[in-house]
Amino acid sequence: MVQRHRYKYGGDPSQWGELFLPDLPDDGAHRGVVVVIHGGYWRSKYGAELGEPMADDLAAHGMAAWNLEYRRAGNGGGWPQTFTDVLAGIDKLQELAGPHALDLDRVVALGHSAGGHLAVWAAGRDRLPRLGLVGEHSEVGARDDGVRLTGVVSQSGVLNLAEAEKLHLSDGAVANFLGGPSSEIPGRYRYADPMAALPLDIPVYAVHATEDESVPLAMSTSYVEASESGPVPAQLVTVPGDHFGLIDPHAPAYGTCRELVRELMR
Length: 266
Hints:
Blueprint: E1 3-8, E2 16-21, E3 33-37, H1 52-60, E4 64-68, H2 81-100, E5 107-112, H3 114-123, E6 151-155, H4 161-166, H5 169-178, H6 186-192, E7 204-209, H7 218-226, E8 235-239, H8 252-265
Parallel strand pairs: 3-4, 3-5, 5-6, 6-7, 7-8
Antiparallel strand pairs: 1-2, 2-4
């Protein structure tokens, strides 16, 4: 039976996560944690309810899952709040590990759409200081004792912000999220773009739906191509279906994502 526990990691109403736990294994410890990061083009009208079915399904399949909510554009999020929230939400697992017997040696992120962007971005947190952001928000990602992701499954993730801005995806969602066009705030764009943190030294599966009309396949292919010279190149996995089949526990596209998460958890 799946148990659910909700915790806050900050004072804002959107700074919380819900831990979905399966029955404990015989050795008395959960073998890793999956951080579920929902999408919605970073806008406040979409929330953690999108990730709830996946977190519940993962727990039903024996994996501890942390369904993470965060501030989005329109409810106090954007730059830098969304980024600091995601890292703080992942780091909250350090506090929860003892009470819930969580193994933080394996922490895998499963992120859909904009959540895929945030998941892959968070995987590169140790690369951020070298990008040279200066000024009032240079502390974003600066903590060096936080929880490190050991793998990511991106579900039609927005993994190339420069190209997403150029394509004006979802009526200018990137500029809305970051607070302006790249011509005015180039440093912020560079810091926020998962492409800039390459190469990573952990596995990333860029899963993309072949009939996705919300996030172009190029968001995944360009990231995978850019990663090829790194120590652990990202892998492209195409699946049948549309954008939302990736988060439907009954859809084959999501089933592929679950199996990739399970592989990373091993």
